[in-house]
Amino acid sequence: MSTNTNNSTLIERLFSVGAHFGFKKSRRHPTVMPYLFGTKEGNDIFNLEKTAQLLNKATELLQEAGANGKTVLFVGTKTEVVDMVKKSAEKVSMPYVVNRWIGGMLSNFSEVKKRINRLAELESGVTSGELERKYTKKERMVLSREATKLDHNFKGISNLVKLPDLLVVVDPRHDHIAVKEARAMKVPVIGIMSSDCDVTKVTYPVLVNDSLRGSVSLVLEEMTKALATGQANYVPKPATARTETRPRTRATAPRA
Predict the structure, then answer these.
(1) Higher pLDDT pick, 256 / 232
(2) Between the CA of residue 87 and those of 65, 91, 156, 171, what are the distances in Å?
(3) Residue 254 scores a pLDDT above 50
(4) Gap between the Cα atoms of 66 and 234, Å rounded
(5) CA dihedral sign of residues 12, 13, 15, 20
(6) What is the pLDDT, as a whole number, of residue 1?
(7) Which of 76, 111, 207, 249 has minimal Cβ neighbours within 10 Å of its Cβ?
(8) Coil, strand, or helix at residue 161?
(9) CB atoms within 10 A of CB 20
């Protein structure tokens, strides 16, 4: 199938889920102007040809990331997208943030890692029965509350051992702190965003309706499919064995 045919099919699918509808003209951010087709009844309408091109670029990037064993962090904390973002991330075994973004999650990752380790420690203590043996009922109650709070804030990134290589953010305007930290740490951001967002704040914008579930679901589906394709082709680099080198000895001429 040709690229043109693929693009036409993608445009039709985007149109069918209402991805072309932006917000009211009064809410428009000026940076989205190049991606608009026009307005209808006061609402901005996206140029889906351009949206398809942006989405293709993002999926190519994600496929490459998967093929190279990169870590992609999915972020979406507004109510209407939480379940989709979590499900998409879990489908490709990637970390996610769908509750409140904790300040410093990227810019102060060393401290966040301590909280992740603490959560793992408490979960291990429950599983092994160590908490039951070592602490009183009152102490266990306090630890249980701590574990619940840590689970709420950090469960989605519990397997994150280093800064992610890439972020996928649904509605960068809503999760602007995540985007700001990613920019500060030089982590590229793919933004699934509507007409009220600043395109210049993300590395790879994808302009669609970011409030309609069908629109966001379709884009996430395309992205996770590309990432999974790349992951299927990922070949871990073999560990290189360290070779012990001995210092050379100078050859000495035999005595006469």
Answers:
(1) 232
(2) 19, 6, 11, 17
(3) no
(4) 7
(5) negative
(6) 45
(7) 249
(8) coil
(9) 22
Whether the Cβ atoms of residue 66 and residue 227 lie closer than 8 Å to each other: yes
Q: How far, in Å, are 105, 124, 167 from residue 108 at the CA level?
A: 6, 25, 16
Which CATH number is 107-158's, of 1.10.287, 3.90.75, 3.30.530, 1.10.150?
1.10.287
Closest by alpha carbon to 17, among 187, 222, 253? 222
- Of the candidate CATH numbers 3.50.50.60, 3.40.50.10490, 1.20.1600.10, 3.40.50.10300, the domain formed by 3-103+163-232 belongs to 3.40.50.10490
Give the residue-averaged pLDDT of 14-30: 95
167-206 pLDDT per residue, tens? 999 999 999 999 999 999 999 999 999 999 999 999 999 9
Q: Is the pLDDT of residue 248 over 80?
A: no
The Cβ of residue 5 has, within 10 Å, a number of other Cβ atoms equal to: 9
Q: What is the residue-averaged pLDDT of the chain?
A: 91
Nearest to 100 by CA among 180, 49, 154: 154
Domain boundaries, the chain: 3-103+163-232, 107-158
On whether the CB atoms of residues 152 and 188 are closer than 8 A, the answer is no
Provide the CA 97 distance to its chain's centre, in angstroms.
Answer: 8
The closest of 223, 208, 108 to 167, measured between CA atoms, is 223
Enter the DSSP assignment of 165: S
The span from the CA of 162 to the CA of 256, in Å, is: 64
